[in-house]
Hints:
By secondary structure, the protein is an alpha/beta fold. It folds into 2 domains: 3-101 and 290-309, Rossmann fold (3-Layer(aba) Sandwich); 105-282, 3-Layer(aba) Sandwich (Rossmann fold), CATH 3.40.50. The protein has helices at 12-15, 17-25, 41-47, 63-67, 87-93, 105-120, 123-131, 155-164, 180-185, 193-199, 219-222, 242-251, 291-309, and strands spanning 3-7, 28-32, 53-56, 74-77, 96-98, 147-151, 170-174, 189-190, 202-205, 229-233, 254-259, 280-282. Strands 8-7-6-9-10-11-12 form a 7-stranded parallel β-sheet, sandwiched between helices.
Amino acid sequence: MTKKVLIAKPYFERFSPSACRMLREHGCQLQFIELDRDYTLEELKAAAHDADAVIADSEPWCEEAMAAAPRLKVIARYGVGMNSVDTEAARRRGIICTNCPGINANPVAEHTLALMLCALRDMANLNASTKQGRWEQAIFYELAGRTVGIIGFGYIGQLVAKKLSGFDCRVLAYDVAPNVEAARLLNVELADFDTILRQSDIISLHVPLLPDTEGMINAETLAKTKPGVIFVSEARGEVVDEQAMYDALVSGQVGFFASDVFVHEPVTPENTPLLRLPNVIATPHNGGETYENGERCGSMTAQQVIDVLEGREPANRRT
């Protein structure tokens, strides 16, 4: 019997053609999302009613969505974060969940460096003013000699540290389970959370969204930072209290906030007042979106779907 695979990741066929070939070669019928955004809950329920498997993006895989998909055997997350999937509900229903840990670390680390440098040199505003015919002079600090604090020293945090090694800056890192050997090899100083806040000129966020990390950057923690600190976030929007960050940006306690992630996505000036501030750089949660990563992540996700549908244990099971 042909297995139906719902592809909820927008543009999957364009960016992961090898994965599509793999799935078809294993007899899967593919149904693609025809939107440039994630499904809403109601859209998801309608699309998934007869799916045997799904390649998931960030659509809401809650109990209600799973109940509307009685044939569903596997939710294969295209990427790493599992916060859009109710894994306990999946476990109760016998649905296997998978993800792709570490697969997008390099493109996200590169994106982090891009945000960091753009914030340090105010590239977005200078680009806009120059194109408007204003030849504005400005002066900045160099990355060399700055102290960069990395909060979350996993796959991505370690690659950020590696890429920073050529910029002649001091790198600190905090993690609840620090990798001492990686820190030694990368010439990174492991530090506690408060030390990162108090000593860093630039703070880069790379933690998963967990009860302990939700809102970890808030009014209290922001008050401990150096005045004018730069924050870069490639974590999850909820890690930052956006109202507290807004207030700190207005007061000058934070000099710049460059983020790929927000509480409300898609982000707009109406749902996220941060976008109205000149010292904010925002990108649309696409730090991992490269052609190379599309093929890597697509192939890993597809293989895990195939393994589950053919009765094998997937490589990165989360339920």
